[in-house]
TrEMBL record:
PROSITE patterns for this protein: MFS, SUGAR_TRANSPORT_1, SUGAR_TRANSPORT_2
Keyword line: Cell membrane, Membrane, Symport, Transmembrane, Transmembrane helix, Transport
Superkingdom of the source species: Bacteria
Protein name: MHS family alpha-ketoglutarate permease-like MFS transporter
Gene3D superfamilies for the chain: MFS general substrate transporter like domains
Principal location class: membrane
Membrane topology: Multi-pass membrane protein
Length: 437
């Protein structure tokens, strides 16, 4: 199995689009410290960030709708068509943020424009995750799926790194006043242009064999419907439960980390950004290694390792991070957290795709995952800031540990998915091998 070839053209094509999608998604949080006052001038810094974090969370609550609509679209019209549509929506949302008027110009109407843009982003990302996960999994032969699908988080993290890298460049070439005034718009303009390029790249992708097979043999009405999804209720609930701990931990050690190091630990913004950049780069490089390992030993061992590590390690790690005084200590502790999270991020996409049949695979991954992210991932930063604002910041650390504990129970009881057949052709091949034995 391990000798099967990786279809690099499909992996790179799907991942490049995912990079731009998540660059736009994460750059909002990366630059929130600069544009928060432009839309919410009243209150202290924490209050302003709470307002922008609330708008960030709004985008997550559109993800279930995006998961349903675009997951259904991917199951009916194809993975390629869905990938092209999601990047188009993301380009439009980035452009909206880039031109959003400030409070000084039009009052709170500028904040309304931000909300609309975040709603579009939520709709897009709600479908992007499933379309990308399904495409990468279906386009890769069994025995290399863990490795190939890990590039979803490679691309997601690369998108964030591009955003953080751009932030570092702007921090060192522009004054704080210029960044607060207009510099924060630059990354959103770049995101909109990048999405236009990816639109062209995705139009040249090939459809997956599993979907083509389904297209030939099954009527459209039977694909991507809620009725079909309800026939797999156990798997849908499993996706929600196994996502819960992972998504909270991921957003804690990625999007929230820079703010935490800056606001709570008291590190300069520039130092906090550099810590996040270096830690995320190493984290990105670990994803294919862990994904490849899952192809050899299975998915469950990695998930269980993450669950135990996050449940027991979050409180001491975050407490220690709150007391760091320099770059080195912050980097080491951040890396420990991200290494633990790798047990989830490297394989969560392939595990979910392997749970469902082709006719409802994209919707089965999209909708339950989007619901879990709306409830836990999208609210993570807001919950963390709420705890801080109420002078009980450590309560958030226990919240993350509790979410991981719930998911750990699922990891311990779920079935192994590594050897699942994703198409009739694979199942037929498996049946022939079994008959010979």
């Amino acid at each position: 199995m391990s000798k099967a070839r990786v279809p690099w053209k499909a992996v790179i094509g799907g991942s490049v689009g995912n990079l731009v999608e998540w660059y736009d998604w994460f750059v909002y949080t990366s630059f929130a410290v600069y544009f928060a006052a432009s839309f919410f001038p009243e209150g202290d810094n924490t209050a302003k960030l709470l307002n922008t974090a609330a708008i960030f969370a709004v985008g997550f609550f559109m993800r279930p709708l995006g998961g349903w609509l675009l997951g259904r679209y991917a199951d009916r019209k194809g993975r390629k068509a869905a990938l092209t549509l999601t990047v188009t929506l993301m380009s439009a949302s980035a452009l909206l943020i880039a031109i959003a008027p400030t409070y000084e110009t039009v009052g709170y109407f500028g904040a309304v424009v931000l909300v609309v843009a975040r709603l579009l982003q939520g709709l897009s990302v709600g479908g992007e995750y499933a379309a990308s996960a399904t495409y990468l999994t279906e386009a890769t032969p069994r025995g290399r799926r863990g490795f190939a699908s890990s590039f979803q988080y490679v691309s997601m993290t690369a998108g964030q790194l591009v955003g953080l890298g751009l932030q570092i460049i702007l921090q060192n070439t522009m004054s704080t006043e210029a960044l607060d005034s207009y510099g924060w718009r630059i990354p959103f303009v770049i995101g909109a242009l990048g999405a236009a390029v990816v639109f062209y790249l995705r139009r040249n992708l090939l459809e997956t064999e599993a979907y083509d097979e389904e297209e030939r043999e099954v009527e459209h009405q039977g694909r991507g419907t809620i009725k079909q999804l309800l026939a797999h209720k156990k798997e849908a609930l499993l996706v929600i439960a196994l996502t819960m701990g992972g998504t909270v931990a991921y957003y804690t050690y990625t999007t929230y980390l820079t703010k935490y190091l800056s606001i709570s630990a008291g590190l300069p913004k520039e130092t906090a950004t550099l810590v996040s950049f270096c830690a995320l780069f190493i984290f990105m490089c670990l994803q294919p290694l862990a994904g490849g390992l899952s192809d050899r030993i299975g998915r469950r061992p990695l998930l269980i390792t993450f669950g135990i590590g996050s449940m027991l390690g979050t409180v001491p790690l975050m407490t220690a991070l709150g007391g760091v005084t320099g770059f080195a200590g912050a980097l080491v502790l951040s890396l420990i957290g991200l290494i633990i999270v790798t047990g989830y991020t490297s394989i969560n996409a392939v595990v979910k795709a392997e749970l469902f049949p082709t006719n409802v695979r994209a919707l089965g991954v999209a909708l339950p995952y989007a619901i879990a992210n709306a409830l836990f991932g999208g609210t993570a930063e807001y919950v963390a800031l709420w705890f801080k604002n109420n002078k009980i910041e450590s309560g958030y650390f226990w919240y993350v540990s509790a979410c991981a504990a719930v998911s750990l129970v699922v990891y311990l009881t779920m079935r192994e998915t590594r050897d699942a057949a994703l198409s009739r052709a694979e199942q037929a091949s498996e049946d022939v091998v079994t008959a010979r034995v």
